[in-house]
């Protein structure tokens, strides 16, 4: 089996379209696809495939029929910012934007939890990246239900029905987006607890990276097992063919980036887009105009 | 049976929470509830009940747990603008706003059909009125499917699955809003074809009302039967306990207004809201502060 076939098969195994049998424990964060690639070779390969992503983005932008929503979730230091920087730096900024969903502010809290999500949903022809997303509302609030008291909610909160309602609302939102022509891809950057420890230590050792820390991040590490459980639930409840989760082995950054870009490229290729052809009367006009430009005095 | 009991029973019969057996033909636009009220008596009664609406709105605003979304739909001259003016003029403008959904503009068309709807959804504590709504996307575009070509849509359009998808997206949106504590009330102002004729004629006779006309309105009258069918479908597909349709007999304006305000009042009363009580420590502070104010030199 050649490397590409092997990689595509690995991609399939990370792709969750039905959560019923999903078990996060089956996913090894250390997996590197067994491609026999070194970190340097992986980085070189990424550079090559980024060119393909740019071509596909051009077609997406030109056709104005579809859009792409990329959701990035993961524990602190899992590589969300790095993925955006290294994977998406090749695309045309005119067609892409990033929305970071931090703790909701006062105006956001006056609306339903999906309000700010809808506002940021992609226009046709565009790629939008969510750095954290609607899933925070079934992850951080699930681990810390006392945060719900800041939301203006009626009815019983933090009951099993409450969480089922949120999962259902999220599924419906994504189904709607998919029906409108949005490709929804949800990436969980899966690192091990030990890998997080090493990355946090490395960050603490580099003075220029200390700004990325807040004491809150370090406290969240104490809730590691609760977060794993919350991810397990969120993924199994919301993985659907129209909005798959891709569980990305992320202990090796170079491999995680290849998996993310691979999944995006594959989804865009499935659209089988071509450069749009102008209507015959427009083509005729363009030909005539070309003739006119050619006959102008230089 | 006294008049109030009779009126409440009539209200029940207009309230559609399950569309399976809904037939628009069972609803008589000429119905005036058989209350034996004259137009003048109806107008006087409206004035009285508006006071109750204001009280309930104050509680809604103070409690910050729920919100109200009022959707007004109906044929041209059915009384949408008049209902807003006469029913909602009693409430505090700080807690209410009206969004009119006309033909979508270029930016709106770049997003999914529910994008502008979500943006306008009510904050907690508020009443929002939609003058036309998401339902235009299964009414006017259903009657004139060629309008869909202006939307950037992928996949097969105007197929039965396409419309089922839209109904489903609308139901899900409303279910989400309801779960967030929004009371969703959808009013169809039901007039007869003959009543529309008379109202249009009356408008044409009054020079000051001629501005309300566009030739397009008059053309839409030609599609009366198609619109009735589209309303029949929309109501039967989207009437749910969490987002009922109220089919308002609207040939008599005074009666239509009583029905609309009656349904809103009843929904708000069901919340059984009381003025929020301050926490004991806040109450203590307020008492102390009062003492301080009293002891100030005048």
UniProtKB/TrEMBL annotation, chains A, B:
Keyword Lipid metabolism appears in the UniProt entry: no
Annotated ranges, domain Polyphosphate kinase-2-related: 38-274
Domain of life: Bacteria
Alphabetized UniProt keyword annotations: Kinase, Transferase
Gene Ontology MF annotations: polyphosphate kinase activity
Kinase recorded as keyword: yes
GO annotation (BP), single: polyphosphate metabolic process
SUPFAM superfamilies: P-loop containing nucleoside triphosphate hydrolases (SSF52540)
PANTHER family from the UniProt entry: POLYPHOSPHATE:AMP PHOSPHOTRANSFERASE, POLYPHOSPHATE:AMP PHOSPHOTRANSFERASE-RELATED
Family as reported in the entry's similarity comment: Belongs to the polyphosphate kinase 2 (PPK2) family. Class I subfamily.
The protein's name: Polyphosphate:nucleotide phosphotransferase
Annotated source species: Acetobacter tropicalis
